[in-house]
Amino acid sequence: MSEPNLPQPDNAASASAMGRALHALTTLLPTLGEGSHRLSISAERTDGIELSAELHVSVEPGAWRVDHSPEEYMRFFVLLTFSLEGTTVREAALIAMTADAGTHVCGWDVEDGWLHPIAPAELQKVAESFPADDASPYVIGHARALPLPYGIKK
Fold first, then answer.
1. What is this structure's pTM?
2. β partners of residue 65
3. Average confidence (pLDDT) over 107-127
4. Distance from C-alpha of 39 to C-alpha of 25, rounded to nearest angstrom
């Protein structure tokens, strides 16, 4: 049985989404602050297939480092790009976890081509599906609104 044909975004839409994905990462990481962060993105394609990718990032003053291979970073970036583009993805969410006196969790839903904060009550339900470390319980936090890239309107 062959895979279903997904709609193909045009080049301009893909390029725009790639720019938004880069903007999202460059605004998200300073928002999370210094430390070690685990970013998880999950998406449901329009054909019902669920995809996910993780990225471990260390943020230091003036710099950030991806603690993964280039292939793993590319998988994360491509999934974020296609989630923001929206033609082939029905819904997606990005969750950030930071280990610091408990595991701090915040997240964003992808809506209308951008990342929008998930309310803490809704995020609590999502966090319960992640395996917890009894020594480091989850602390649900408010995700900050990320500045929109140029050309995106509310």
1. 0.85
2. 58
3. 90
4. 10
If one counts every other C-beta atom within 10 angstroms of the C-beta of residue 31, the result is: 14
| Amino acid letter, residue 59 | V
Residues 46 and 12: their CA atoms lie apart, in Å, by: 20
Q: Identify the CA nearest to 55 among candidates 108, 96, 115.
A: 96
- In angstroms, rounded to a whole number, what is the distance separating the alpha carbons of residues 89 and 62? 33
What does the pLDDT look like over 85-111, one tens digit per residue?
999 999 999 999 987 767 889 999 999
Are the CB atoms for 106 and 96 separated by under 8 Å? yes
Do the Cβ atoms of 152 and 111 come closer than 8 Å? no
Write down the pLDDT at residue 146.
Answer: 92
Between the two ends of the chain, the Cα-to-Cα distance in Å is 42
What are the φ/ψ torsions at residue 100 (nearest 5 degrees)? -165, 95
